[in-house]
């Protein structure tokens, strides 16, 4: 959507929260996000992408975030409109929501090497692991409302005939050998997922998009933002998603160990759980190939970047190696 169109919609939406002044565009991708000023202070106004999540699903996302924030979890606090609603429907049908502002810097950005030393990166990911564990534990104590509606990041949602983000093995940019490799990887992940389900691996609500841009580093520790993709799935999918951006980092062994240790310090992981983390990482890489098909211009080099990442990790795991190669 054009920035000027989004800005006009932001002016319309912010009135529902009593906003004043001119909205400041922060990003205009899946959702258009603006900084606004409300009577409650600075806020992040989100104009949700039409056709992705239903209004009921957006309300469910905000219910979960609000329940977590009310329990002092490090997530943004959703703000209610002047009429007490968590969402506002614009004239064109687009849904808007607003979150209390979080002051912090992103952990990093996609495609840009992480800054800092190996020790600093490890410390950040240990804290991230603990954050995910606290969010999962707090969620276990919640009872979602009857009308709670979110997608399922399970075997059908990630690997079925109609995955949530598309049939990645049919990406038009795949060479025939690459397509065959992703089909084999899909079967490999499906078997591992069925085995994990059979043994009762931990499942529940997950953030499902723990990317660097969605982790803000604040003076009080990391904060998890952007729950737009949250849903039900394997809890370890959150760790796999976080690791998917780090596969080319020179300090990947330290990052992996710190993330797992941080999580396991609050939610212990059995050896078979830890063995599932590379599979969850691969599942995210495969899903991301499907994601590019409808969200990135056909001529963008990002298609090849996502394909290369997925094929490299597929070959690696199918050879019996771990995330850091032979280990």
What structural category do the secondary elements indicate? alpha+beta
Helix and strand run:
HEEEHEEEEHEHHEEEEHHHH
Helical region count? 9
Second rung of CATH, namely the architecture of the largest domain: Alpha-Beta Complex
Largest sheet properties: 6 strands, antiparallel
Question: Gap between N and C termini, in Å?
Answer: 46 Å
- Strand tally is 12
Question: How large is the share of residues in beta strands?
Answer: 15-25%
Radius of gyration of CA atoms, rounded to a whole number: 20 Å
Number of folding domains? 2
CATH structural class of the largest domain: Alpha Beta
Portion in helices: 40-55%
- In CATH, what is the homologous superfamily of the largest domain? Aminoglycoside phosphotransferase (APH), C-terminal lobe
InterPro entries: Aminoglycoside_PTrfase, Kinase-like_dom_sf, Pseudomonas-type_ThrB
Family: Belongs to the pseudomonas-type ThrB family.
Pfam family, one: APH
Protein name: Phosphotransferase enzyme family protein
Descriptors:
Aminoglycoside_PTrfase, globular, Phosphotransferase enzyme family protein, 9 helices, alpha+beta, Kinase-like_dom_sf, 327 residues, Aminoglycoside 3'-phosphotransferase, Chain: A, domain 2, single chain, Pseudomonas-type_ThrB
List the helices and strands and how they pair.
Elements (H helix, E strand, L loop, with lengths): L2 H12 L5 E9 L3 E7 L2 E7 L7 H16 L7 E2 L8 E2 L5 E6 L4 E2 L11 H23 L11 E2 L1 H5 L16 H23 L4 E4 L8 E4 L2 E4 L6 E4 L1 H9 L7 H13 L6 H25 L6 H17 L9
Parallel strand pairs: 8-12
Antiparallel strand pairs: 1-2, 2-3, 3-6, 4-6, 5-6, 7-10, 9-12, 10-11
């Amino acid at each position: 959507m054009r920035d000027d169109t989004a800005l006009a919609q932001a002016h319309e939406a912010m009135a529902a929260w009593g906003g004043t002044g001119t909205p400041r565009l922060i990003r205009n991708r899946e959702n258009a996000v603006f900084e606004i000023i409300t009577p409650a202070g600075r806020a992040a106004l989100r104009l949700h992408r039409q056709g992705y999540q239903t209004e009921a699903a957006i309300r469910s996302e905000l219910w979960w975030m609000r329940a977590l924030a009310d329990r002092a979890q490090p997530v943004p606090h959703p703000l209610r409109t002047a009429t007490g609603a968590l969402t506002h429907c614009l004239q064109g049908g687009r849904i808007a929501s607003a979150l209390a502002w979080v002051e912090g810097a992103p952990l990093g950005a996609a495609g840009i090497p992480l800054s800092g030393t190996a020790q600093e990166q490890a410390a950040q990911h240990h804290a991230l692991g603990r954050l995910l564990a606290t969010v999962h534990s707090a969620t276990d104590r919640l009872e979602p409302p009857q009308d709670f509606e979110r997608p399922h990041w399970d075997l059908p949602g990630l690997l079925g005939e109609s995955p949530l983000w598309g049939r990645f093995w049919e990406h038009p940019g795949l060479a025939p050998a690459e397509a065959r490799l992703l089909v084999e990887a899909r079967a490999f992940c499906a078997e591992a997922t069925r085995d994990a389900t059979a043994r009762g691996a931990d499942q529940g609500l997950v953030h499902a998009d723990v990317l660097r841009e969605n982790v803000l580093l604040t003076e009080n520790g990391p904060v998890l933002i952007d729950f737009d993709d949250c849903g039900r799935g394997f809890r370890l999918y959150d760790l796999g998603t976080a690791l998917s951006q780090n596969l080319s980092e020179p300090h990947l062994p330290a990052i992996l160990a710190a993330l797992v240790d941080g999580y396991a310090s609050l939610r212990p992981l059995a050896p078979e759980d830890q063995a599932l983390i590379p599979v969850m990482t691969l599942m995210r890489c495969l899903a991301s190939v499907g994601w590019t098909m409808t969200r990135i211009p056909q001529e963008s080099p990002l298609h090849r970047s996502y394909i290369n990442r997925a094929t490299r990790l597929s070959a690696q795991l199918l050879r019996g190696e771990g995330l850091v190669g032979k280990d």
